[in-house]
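Weekly puzzle thread! Below is a chain. First person to post its structure in token form gets bragging rights.
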Amino acid sequence: MKSKRLGIWLALIVEVVLLTILTSSFGGGNFFESTFLNWSNISQVIRALSFIAIMAVGQSLVIITAGIDLSVGSILGLSGVVTAVLMNNGFDVASSAILGLVVGSLCGLANGLLITETKLPPFIATLGMMSIARGLAFALTGGETIRNLPAEFLTLGQGTILSIPIPIIIMAIFAFVVGYFLKATKWGRYVYAIGGNEEASHFSGVNVARMKILVYTLCGFAAGIAGVLFTARFGVGQSTAGLGYELDVIAAAVIGGISLSGGRGTILGAIIGSLLMGILRNGLVLLNVSAYWQQVAIGLVILLAVILDRKTKR
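Winning reply:
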């Protein structure tokens, strides 16, 4: 496990060095004049990946229990749309944002109940929720973009504290709290136990259904946070926000060492996986790689991560 964590750090370092060299040669400058290593670019990359990282933290809880949530991208879109619609209808910023988080949490709660009460496989339950949440987002907006959001709300996504983007601060706090929950509480140990052997956990006295409902609700809550911040960052409410993000979120968690078989992984690993994904996508853009080939590259990275996870498990 330690060697795997070391490998993730090593991959991150190699990726940064390689992109720094490649963007330097393309720009005709020296190593320290790299387009990639420019502070403006780095801050934009970190701010952009914060949405993926927040959702990857929530997704990690689900995957550690040997589940999966395909609805996070759609929940992001729905939470952001709800927040924007409420503000455009006279609600204050705080109430709108809180209700956006509540919507995300309720979607996660619905996922958990579908899986535990109706015994639907996580893949099917969350696939259905993905369609429902996206449909609701389109229904609320009529396919239109919601504009003219309050300036104090936009500060959440565009502002900084001590030169650190606010979304990054929120991501760090959320990751720390969830990481503490996993490592230092009995509920965190239950999450790992369920992923390791659900039946044994049940006979050991763990309320498996309750814990699954909790982790899916937290995953929905994380997508809600990302949705509110995403809307504040771009200044508009869009029904298409977060489209396809579930792929990046799951990839970030798996690349960061969260085992798809359940029972293994850390929140720090999910954050590093998000960094790897965000930097890769940014590097491909800087190198003028076609958007089509970007998808190919990311797909290959995901396949490689899953293959390595399977080999490690065996």
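Puzzle host: Confirmed. Bonus trivia for everyone else. The mean pLDDT is 89.
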